[in-house]
């Protein structure tokens, strides 16, 4: 039997938790400008599957690549590495 290849695992911050079992996670990286050399912050957003609805906005999460679950969902939650600090309204 063929062995599965390793899947990408990323760290990011939950930006939106309004959907059921779905979260939008933003991953920030730093890239150097090709001409001027200034270090810039770049953002990528990923749609992630969260089966138990356990992550909330502001949580730092670890998520991995998986089979397509919908038109845009190709990632799933592995673990919550850091819970968001409570916000007083």
What key attributes describe this structure?
single chain; OB fold (Dihydrolipoamide Acetyltransferase, E2P); five-stranded mixed beta barrel; 52% strand
How confident overall, as mean pLDDT? 94
Contiguous low-pLDDT stretches (5 residues minimum) are none
The helicity comes to under 10%
CATH architecture: Beta Barrel
Strand order of the largest sheet: 1-2-3-5-4
| Separation, N- and C-terminal Cα atoms | 55 Å
Shape: globular
Strand content is over 45%
| Total count of helical runs of at least 4 residues | 0
- The total count of strands amounts to 5
What would you say this structure looks like, in words?
The chain is 0% helix and 52% strand. The protein has 89 residues and is mostly beta strands. It is globular. The chain has one domain (9-82): Beta Barrel (OB fold (Dihydrolipoamide Acetyltransferase, E2P)), CATH 2.40.50.140. It starts with 8 loop residues before the first strand and ends in a 7-residue tail after the last strand. It has strands at residues 9-16, 22-32, 39-49, 60-65, 73-82. A hairpin with a 6-residue loop joins strand 2 (22-32) and strand 3 (39-49). It has no helices and five strands.
């Amino acid at each position: 039997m063929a062995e599965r290849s390793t899947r990408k695992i990323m760290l990011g911050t939950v930006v939106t938790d309004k959907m059921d079992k779905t979260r939008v996670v933003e991953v920030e990286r730093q890239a150097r400008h090709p001409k001027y050399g200034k270090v810039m912050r770049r953002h990528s957003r990923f749609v992630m599957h969260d089966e138990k609805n356990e992550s909330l906005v502001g949580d730092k999460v670890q998520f991995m690549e998986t089979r397509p679950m919908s038109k845009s969902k190709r990632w799933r939650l592995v673990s919550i590495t850091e819970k968001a600090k409570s916000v007083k309204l």
